[in-house]
Write a structure and sequence with these properties.
The chain is 58% helix and 0% strand. By secondary structure, the protein is an all-alpha fold. Helix 5 packs antiparallel against helix 6, helix 8 runs antiparallel to helix 9 (145-152) and helix 8 (125-140) crosses helix 10. The longest helix has 24 residues, at 157-180. It is globular, with a radius of gyration of 17 Å. Mean pLDDT is 86; it is low at 201-219.
Length: 219
């Protein structure tokens, strides 16, 4: 089993969310500005990352800029994030972003074909170029001239920069989530790929589909 496979199947968290009884005044202040789930619950990613309060404090504005105030259309942003989650086997990242993708207008068919990569039938040309960009950045830490030029027909310089930074940001987040074993929050399991099956490559995509009866589970 590869390290990537092992990370996707991590059975227990290596770091638990910081218990509320251990929150000091600064921790409470930092977590107060984090996005909250229904019922005022703070997602596990934040209550775990806050174990490093200085890093957390710098991370949140940068992540928020890309997620909430970026220049890319929301639908395209979420396609890039979902493909990055698939490429890195980041179950938490996938589970949290499928609902965001749907809210942004990503169709169920698009969510399903994320696992199949840029050559899957059904993508628009722009979607195909973006999925290919996510793959190239994941694999080569750069984009091919062909992919860059194709995207430059649709985006200005700032958006091209944002594409690279967005994919890089969600790689970094995936590294943190996979290495520490952050558990997916209550209420999100049903939108996640088959547990342990999320990850790159058509073989695993086929296994996930077969286990799910031909589709990623739905809420």
């Amino acid at each position: 089993m590869s390290q990537r496979d092992e990370a996707a199947r991590q059975p227990r968290p290596r770091l638990l969310p910081l218990p509320e009884e251990q929150w000091d005044a600064r921790t409470r202040e930092l977590l107060a500005i984090a996005p909250h789930d229904p019922g005022d619950r703070i997602p596990n990613i934040f209550t775990t990352l806050v174990r490093h309060p200085d890093l957390y404090e710098q991370f949140l504005p940068f992540g928020g800029q890309l997620l909430l105030s970026g220049r890319l259309p929301e639908e395209l942003r979420e396609l890039l994030i979902l493909r990055t989650a698939w490429n890195t086997g980041a179950r938490y990242e996938w589970g949290r972003h499928v609902p965001l993708a749907r809210a942004a207008g990503v169709t169920d068919a698009d969510v399903d074909r994320i696992a199949e990569g840029p050559e899957a039938p059904g993508w628009t040309e722009l979607q195909r170029h973006l999925i290919r960009a996510a793959d190239e950045l994941n694999r080569e830490a750069t984009m091919s001239d062909a992919t860059w030029e194709a995207l430059a027909e649709h985006f200005a310089d700032a958006e091209l920069i944002e594409i690279t930074m967005l994919v890089g940001q969600y790689h970094m987040v995936a590294f943190f989530l996979n290495a520490t074993g952050v558990e997916l929050d209550p209420g999100f399991d049903a939108v996640t790929a088959v547990p342990g099956a999320i990850g790159p490559g058509p073989a695993r995509a086929g296994a996930a589909r077969a286990a799910a009866g031909g589709a990623v589970p739905r809420r």
